[in-house]
Write a structure and sequence with these properties.
This protein is an alpha/beta fold and 137 residues long. The protein contains 5 helices and 8 strands, in the order βββααβαβαβαββ. The longest helix has 14 residues. The termini are close together.
Length: 137
């Protein structure tokens, strides 16, 4: 376990595995930005049979070129995508997770705002190619 301090506060990070969660809510823009080949996010989820909802930022017109690409990846790999049209995807992912899941689910993002917002769902931060279970310190 390690402690991290950011402008948003202090957080505890513990190594985590996606396999520990029955359903994931993925903040696509955040996680895809950390990958050299964003399509790999979708392909690997489909190949692994992960139950996931891919939440795509669509609340600003500048997002649209990537929105189209990510929706195409969802169609190509038969994955569930949802558009976040009025707020950042990490916050919408938390809302969806907490509304739809009775436990055993997690939000996957790189944004600490999700940790601050989540009450019942776990938040997994993707950093340096690893997943970390994040909580407030």
């Amino acid at each position: 376990m390690r402690e991290v301090r950011t402008k948003k506060g202090r957080f505890l990070l513990r190594p985590a595995s996606l396999a520990d969660y029955r359903r994931l809510y993925v903040d696509v823009f955040s996680v895809a930005a950390a990958l050299s080949h964003p399509e790999e996010l979708f392909r690997s989820a489909a190949e692994a049979g992960i139950d996931a909802v891919f939440v795509v930022d669509a609340w600003h017109e500048t997002h649209m070129p990537l929105v189209r690409r990510y929706l195409e990846y969802c169609r190509r790999y038969g994955l569930e995508c949802r558009l976040s049209e009025s707020k950042p995807a990490e916050l919408y992912a938390v809302e969806l997770c907490e509304a739809e899941c009775d436990g055993g689910c997690a939000v996957v993002t790189r944004d600490y705002d999700a940790v601050l917002r989540a009450e019942r769902c776990a938040v997994l931060l993707f950093q340096k190619g690893r997943f970390w279970l994040a909580s407030r310190a």
